Each structure stands twice: as C-alpha cells, then as structure tokens.
C-alpha cells in the first residue's frame, strides 16, 4: 500500500469535508463505543481481566523466543510448517512459493491486516495468483480497489449507497438498496470462489504455543470456509500474536469481543491445528504458518515494547475523537487511529509518519479503553521525542519552543513576557472581549475567536494585594 | 465560614498556589477565586513568585531535557509547602509526570515524587483532601460541565466539581452528551491541526448548547478558552466560566470572551 502519511494534514482536511464519509463516521461513533460500554457494564470482573491480560502479555513478550519456539515445535508436531519471515519481502515470497507449489490460480483470503501490511494482494496478482477477499467488507473494498480504513470494520468509511453502486457495477446485477439482498448477492458470488480456490489464506488473532494452534475470530464464517475447503491453508501472522496456552487465549477472546464490538463472544472462533488428520472429515492437506517479524522484535526492550501487547480490537480508534473526525484513510497507511500512530512510525519510519503521533490531543481515551492497558499517549510522546532528537520537527516550531523554554526557566523574564503578552492581546481586543483575528495567520483564529485577557497578570495583581510583602513560602 | 482544616499538623494547612500560565495571563480572577476557596477551607495560601509554567509545551513536543529544567524550577519553587494546589487538572497532572523526567539517582527524582504526592487540582483538593463543608454563595443558573481530559483521566476528577456545585444554592446541572469527550484544545494540537481541532470543538459546542444551559463550566482554562472562542465565533450566548468562579461567588466579571458591554447587557436582562 502506498505510504501517504506525510500528507496527513491535507488528507484530513479532505476527510472533514467529505459528507458521505462524515455520515459513515457518525454511525461508527454512535455504534461501537456504546456497545462496548454496555458489555463492560455487564461484566464486573472486566477491569481485573484487563490487568491479567496486560501482565500475561508482558510475560509472553519477555519470553518471546521461548514461546515462539514452543509454537513452532507444536505446529510441526501436528504436521504443519512454520516459515519465519524477517520482513514483508520474505513473507510474500514464502506465501507465493506455497501457492506456486500448489499450482494455485486463485486463493481465497480471510481478513488480515498483516496481509495489508505486506501488500500481499498486489504481489500475488503480479505473480499470476488471483486473491479473492471473502470478508464482506474486504470484498467490497477489493471490488472498489480501495483499502481498509479500520482494523476490524474495514469498509466502515462506506455507506449503503456505495455498496449498492459497486455491486451493480461489478456484478452486473440490478441495483438494490436492500442490505439483505446485497448480502445474498455477495454470498452467491463468494460461494463459487470458496469451492474453486486452491489455497486459503487467513490471519490469526492468536497463536497458541502449547498446542501449535492458530485461531481466527469472525462474525461472518467466511474464515472457516477459507481455511477448511482449499487443499492448502496459509496463516499469515506476526510474532506478537503468540500466547502460552489455550486457557490464556480464552482470556483474550473475552476481552477482544467486548472491547471491539461489545459482543460477549465473537460468532465464529475457529482454531486450526495442523492439516487434516486421517480421521478428520475435512480440512486442508497442508498447514503453513508464516510468522512475520517486520521490526517487532526490535521493539522488545525499548520504549515501545508495550505496543506488542496490542490484540487489534480497535477500541482505541472507535473511541478516538481524531479518528472519529477524519476516519482511517487520512492516516495514510495500513494501521489507523491511536494504535497506528504508535505502530506505523516503527514500521515505515518516523521521518515519514511524524504527523501521526503528533495529531493527538493526548486526551487519553484510547488508553482508558485499551483491554491490555497500552499507554498509547505516552508512546506517542516517545515518538515526538525521537522526532525532536532527530531534528525532524519543523524548524520554526523548534525555534519558538526553544525561545519559550528559555523564558520558562527564568522567572523574571517570564513575568515580563506574560505581562507583555497579556497587555498586547488586551490592547488588540479593544473593548470587545475577544479577538477575531491575530496579526499573523493563525490556526486558532481561523476557526474561533481568541478570548481577550482580563488585563494585568495574576502575579502582578497578587503582589500588589500583598503590599509587596516578602513572601517566601514554607520556610519560616 | 471557615471550615475545620483537615491538616496533619493540626494548624491551617499551608498551600502554595500553582497559578498556571493561562490563568496568570488570561484570567487572573480564576486565581483569586481559587485563593478565596482555599482560604474559606481554612488554608493559608502563598504564591511563590519564582513559578513559571508546568512545562507541558516542551514535554508534549518531545523536548525532555528542557522539560526537566523547567520541572526543577517548579520543584524548587514549591519546596516546603504542605500542599500545592492549582486550578487546572492538566497542569497539576503534569506535576505528577515529573518523577519520570529524572534518573533515579538524581536528587530531583525523589523531590519530584514528593511534589507529586502534595499536588492537587482545586476541586479535588477541596473534596478529597480537605473535605471542607463550605457554605457557598447561591447562583441561580442552569449550568453544564465539560470534563477536561487530563483532570478526568489522569487525576480521576469527575464527581468533585459536581459535588461542590451541589452545595451552591440555585445551580441546576444539565449534563451534556459526550461531556467526557475531548474539546480539541490539546495544547499545541489546536495550532498544528486547526481543522481537526475545529471539528472537535464544534461537536463540543453543539452538545453544550443543546442542553440550553446558561453557563458552560469546566476546570481547565485551555479548554475553556477554546470552547468560549468557538461559541463566540458561532454567535452563541452560552457563557463560559471556570468552575471556581461560581464556587467562590466571583461571577461579577465578564465571562470568558465576553465584553463588558455584553456582560452588563446580560445583567440588565436578568434584572
């Protein structure tokens, strides 16, 4: 996927004026947060589970090598194969090789953000393999040559009209606005693909070390058909998805569904453990797990280690007022919202992704809903520190900040500056109580007035009131 | 009027007022209202004149080193006070961040921890620390309350201002939709991303005006300047004030962004 993160400002401006997008975002804001809140209210132990989930992920990350090797051993024991991929290129090549050895023409795909991260579809197509997305949202996006704008509801930026349009155009059917009819139409198109596919590719929500299993959770059941019908099942996932045991996995499933959609449990929870055994009625002949690193192992032991706890529930973006204003595409790459603002700079570089950790008010809502308590604002601040260290922040801004911080360290100068600023603004405002514009082009007064100071600083007035008495606190 | 002070020393708790830059520069009356409330609660208030800013502008811009220097100044300024109290959840929240700016071997690390343990936002201080039974002047208006992010999520301030407003005769609180959603101020955010900030503050003013309240209250001047500025631009009448102005009975000045003329006109209308 083309990196458009440097254009964040322009993209967000366009998004703010996109009427249809804003309508879709309104539905999101009214939907997921309320459902999550209701689900949490029904579960008194929710906060305790969050603590447990945080601690268990911390433990797993601290022993990542151990659990990954255990996972590989158990995948192999059940007849599957693990392919280690250092980066996107290695992962793409591994998957293509599997497809080629199965002589695959078409592959069905379950929803996978990791496959977006490595731009798998384009690569397969370039190499003569046709990928078919089977998640309804992803299917719609593939028809539109569009990309996900949300990690669990990829087509959340679209409205019913958009779906009606693209279905009638691409399917050559009569246009309908009936959601049930549209669903049926997609089902009919996809059923053929499920049966005809040579390889099925899915992601994994978790990898279970003790059994060598992967699990996907979906609400459509498309994942099951994707991984059960073709002869070959490929799981593309990342090293941070490993959990020690099946029981541990259930802890995360309980949190994931509630945090994501407010469901008690996702509709389909499908475990894959190796290829079909002789006594099994169905299942693939081959089972491959492509385990991607792509810089994640480098995050261990750094300020960004906590990000590896992320279970991709999307609660952070569902509750984020910035995401809610501009939607996912404005972020300019695969992972939007607060989790993306922390992860994307690691994956594509802070030089390109600098806007993302800056475009936050640090309101802290993301952290307050994160099921594994990732301190997202703190890590966005760490990215700003990296930017500052590397002199990537705009020169004018750095200069202004430098001057200001010199004043802030010198109380007398600071008093003088405060007095001067207060007086200037007060004078400029006249008797109006506010300023409609400022001498320099200003982001504040573009959209709102600047309330005028009351006049005089508190420190001056206080000093006057105290009659210039010597006040040196707490040291008598 | 003076309450029994809840001081470990048994005498009037000694409070150092952290004025905050915005109050110092834009709205001194918020500082005086805070002092009045503290004195009503039986505290002795001093204002160290070496204080400047809490350091959020540098901290949130990734300049840790300058932030640590600013923090040293704040720690020195408030040395020895039993409590440090300010009319801002955001700035007091920042004081709570100081320990992580220093290496554990730096003496300022333990001093920062000590400061954090003594530092409180005003409504939280009056409610959670002093527990003062204040008798407050009446204020016959319908108000709505914006929960500023740092106070709410870093310091757990939600019930405290409402509890105190409950002691003001005549106040009717009408909660707005999404009272806990960010107003879009975010310090440098509103300057760096003005369009997104505008959308956020627009949502906020829509929710606030929908309550048909007379006054929008909050505990952080940054957010209040943002919301008041937007309401004025939209031509809305909804007044904006810091909650301490109402609690201290100091609403005899124009509201935030209001001219003297408008203020007098409103007074005449009420009379």
Automatic annotation (TrEMBL), chain A:
<dbReference type="InterPro" id="IPR017900">
    <property type="entry name" value="4Fe4S_Fe_S_CS"/>
</dbReference>
<dbReference type="Pfam" id="PF13183">
    <property type="entry name" value="Fer4_8"/>
</dbReference>
<dbReference type="Pfam" id="PF02589">
    <property type="entry name" value="LUD_dom"/>
</dbReference>
<keyword id="KW-0479">Metal-binding</keyword>
<dbReference type="GO" id="GO:0046872">
    <property type="term" value="F:metal ion binding"/>
</dbReference>
<dbReference type="InterPro" id="IPR037171">
    <property type="entry name" value="NagB/RpiA_transferase-like"/>
</dbReference>
<keyword id="KW-0408">Iron</keyword>
<dbReference type="GO" id="GO:0006089">
    <property type="term" value="P:lactate metabolic process"/>
</dbReference>
<dbReference type="GO" id="GO:0051539">
    <property type="term" value="F:4 iron, 4 sulfur cluster binding"/>
</dbReference>
<feature type="domain" description="4Fe-4S ferredoxin-type">
    <location>
        <begin position="301"/>
        <end position="331"/>
    </location>
</feature>
<keyword id="KW-0004">4Fe-4S</keyword>
<dbReference type="InterPro" id="IPR024185">
    <property type="entry name" value="FTHF_cligase-like_sf"/>
</dbReference>
<dbReference type="InterPro" id="IPR003741">
    <property type="entry name" value="LUD_dom"/>
</dbReference>
<feature type="region of interest" description="Disordered">
    <location>
        <begin position="457"/>
        <end position="476"/>
    </location>
</feature>
<protein>
    <submittedName>
        <fullName>Iron-sulfur cluster-binding protein</fullName>
    </submittedName>
</protein>
<dbReference type="InterPro" id="IPR004452">
    <property type="entry name" value="LutB/LldF"/>
</dbReference>
<dbReference type="InterPro" id="IPR017896">
    <property type="entry name" value="4Fe4S_Fe-S-bd"/>
</dbReference>
<keyword id="KW-0411">Iron-sulfur</keyword>
Automatic annotation (TrEMBL), chain B:
<protein>
    <submittedName>
        <fullName>(Fe-S)-binding protein</fullName>
    </submittedName>
</protein>
<dbReference type="InterPro" id="IPR004017">
    <property type="entry name" value="Cys_rich_dom"/>
</dbReference>
<feature type="domain" description="Cysteine-rich">
    <location>
        <begin position="15"/>
        <end position="95"/>
    </location>
</feature>
<feature type="domain" description="Cysteine-rich">
    <location>
        <begin position="143"/>
        <end position="227"/>
    </location>
</feature>
<dbReference type="GO" id="GO:0016491">
    <property type="term" value="F:oxidoreductase activity"/>
</dbReference>
<dbReference type="Pfam" id="PF02754">
    <property type="entry name" value="CCG"/>
</dbReference>
<dbReference type="GO" id="GO:0005829">
    <property type="term" value="C:cytosol"/>
</dbReference>
């Amino acid at each position: 996927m083309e990196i458009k993160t440097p254009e964040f400002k322009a993209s967000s401006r366009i998004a703010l004026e996109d009427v249809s997008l804003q309508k879709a975002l309104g539905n999101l804001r009214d939907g997921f947060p309320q459902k999550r809140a209701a689900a949490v209210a029904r579960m008194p132990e929710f906060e305790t589970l969050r603590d447990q989930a945080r601690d268990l992920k911390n433990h797993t990350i601290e022993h990542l090598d151990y659990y990954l090797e255990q996972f590989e051993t158990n995948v192999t024991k059940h007849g599957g194969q693990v392919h280690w991929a250092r980066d996107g290129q290695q992962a793409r090549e591994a998957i293509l090789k599997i497809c080629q050895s199965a002589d695959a023409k078409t592959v069905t795909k379950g929803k996978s953000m990791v496959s977006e991260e490595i731009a798998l579809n384009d690569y397969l197509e370039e190499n003569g393999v046709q990928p078919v997305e089977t998640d309804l949202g992803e299917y719609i996006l593939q028809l539109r040559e569009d990309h996900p704008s949300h990690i669990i509801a990829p087509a959340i930026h679209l409205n019913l009209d958009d779906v009606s349009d693209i279905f009638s155009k691409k399917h050559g059917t009569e246009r309908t606005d009936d959601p049930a009819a549209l669903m049926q139409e997609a089902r009919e198109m996809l059923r053929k693909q499920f049966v005809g596919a040579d390889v099925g590719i899915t992601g994994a929500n978790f990898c279970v070390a003790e059994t060598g299993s992967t699990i996907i959770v979906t609400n459509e059941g498309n994942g099951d058909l994707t991984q059960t019908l073709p002869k070959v099942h490929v799981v593309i996932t990342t090293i941070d998805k490993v959990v020690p045991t099946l029981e541990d996995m259930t802890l995360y499933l309980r949190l994931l569904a509630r945090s994501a959609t407010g469901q008690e449990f996702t509709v389909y929870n499908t475990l894959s453990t190796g290829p079909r055994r002789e006594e099994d009625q169905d299942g693939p002949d081959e089972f491959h797990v492509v385990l991607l690193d792509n810089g994640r192992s480098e995050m261990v032991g750094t300020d960004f280690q906590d990000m590896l706890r992320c279970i991709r529930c999307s609660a952070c973006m569902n509750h984020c007022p910035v995401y809610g204003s501009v939607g996912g595409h404005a972020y300019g790459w695969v992972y939007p919202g607060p989790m993306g603002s922390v992860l994307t700079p690691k994956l594509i570089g802070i030089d390109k992704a600098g806007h993302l950790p800056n475009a936050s008010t640090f309101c802290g809502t993301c952290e307050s809903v994160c099921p594994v308590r990732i301190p997202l604002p703190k890590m966005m601040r760490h990215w700003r520190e990296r930017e500052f260290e590397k002199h990537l922040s705009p020169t004018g801004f750095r200069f202004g900040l430098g001057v200001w911080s010199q004043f802030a360290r010198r109380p007398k100068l600071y008093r003088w500056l405060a007095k001067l600023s207060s007086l200037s603004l007060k004078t400029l405002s006249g008797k109006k109580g506010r300023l409609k514009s400022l001498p320099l082009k200003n982001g504040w007064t573009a959209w709102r007035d600047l309330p005028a100071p009351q006049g005089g600083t508190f420190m001056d007035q206080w000093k006057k009131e105290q009659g210039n008495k010597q006040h040196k606190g707490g040291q008598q | 009027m003076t309450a029994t002070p809840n001081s470990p020393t048994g005498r009037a708790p000694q409070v150092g007022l952290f004025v905050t830059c915005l109050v110092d520069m834009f709205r001194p009356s918020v500082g005086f209202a805070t002092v009045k409330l503290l004195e009503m609660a039986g505290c002795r208030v001093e204002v160290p004149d070496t204080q400047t800013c809490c350091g959020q502008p540098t901290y949130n811009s990734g300049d840790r080193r300058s932030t640590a220097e600013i923090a040293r100044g704040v720690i020195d300024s408030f040395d020895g006070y039993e409590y440090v109290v300010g009319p801002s959840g955001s700035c007091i929240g920042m004081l709570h961040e100081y320990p992580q700016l220093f290496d554990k071997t730096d003496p300022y690390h333990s001093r920062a921890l000590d400061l954090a343990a003594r530092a409180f936002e005003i409504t939280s201080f009056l409610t959670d620390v002093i527990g003062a039974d204040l008798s407050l002047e009446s204020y016959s208006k319908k108000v709505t309350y914006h929960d500023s992010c740092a106070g709410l999520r870093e310091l757990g301030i939600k019930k405290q201002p409402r509890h105190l407003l409950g002691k003001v005769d005549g106040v009717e609180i009408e909660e707005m939709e999404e009272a806990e959603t960010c107003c879009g101020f975010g310090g440098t955010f509103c300057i760096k991303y003005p369009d997104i900030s505008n959308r956020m503050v627009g949502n906020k003013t829509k929710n606030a005006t929908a309550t048909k309240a007379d006054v929008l209250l909050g505990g952080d001047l940054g957010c209040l300047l943002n919301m008041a500025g937007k309401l004025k631009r939209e031509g809305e009448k909804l007044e904006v004030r810091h909650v301490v102005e109402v609690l201290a009975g100091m609403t005899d000045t124009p509201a935030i962004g209001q001219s003297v003329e408008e203020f007098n006109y409103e007074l005449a209308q009420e009379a």
